[in-house]
Design a protein that fits this description.
Layout (H helix, E strand, L loop, with lengths): L7 H10 L2 H13 L3 E9 L6 E9 L2 E2 L7 E2 L2 E4 L4
Length: 82
Amino acid sequence: MNKPIIDREEMIDAIKRSGYLIEQRVEGVLAKHGYFVEANDAYLDNETKKSREIDLTAMGGKQIIPNEKHFIFPYLLVECEN
């Protein structure tokens, strides 16, 4: 079976239309601001029983009262669309 050949211009066009480039930029910004970031996290959709993907998940931690053990842990679920 022959696989279709994709030329360079088609590859570039597909990447530009996808959310991939945005995803890479957002991942860098979140990491720069102290978040732990994971890309392309898969999970099972309970309604359809199909595998789904979240572009980015990010978790941070901030102490909210100085010199005390009070923290918040923001957890972000990010979908990148072009």
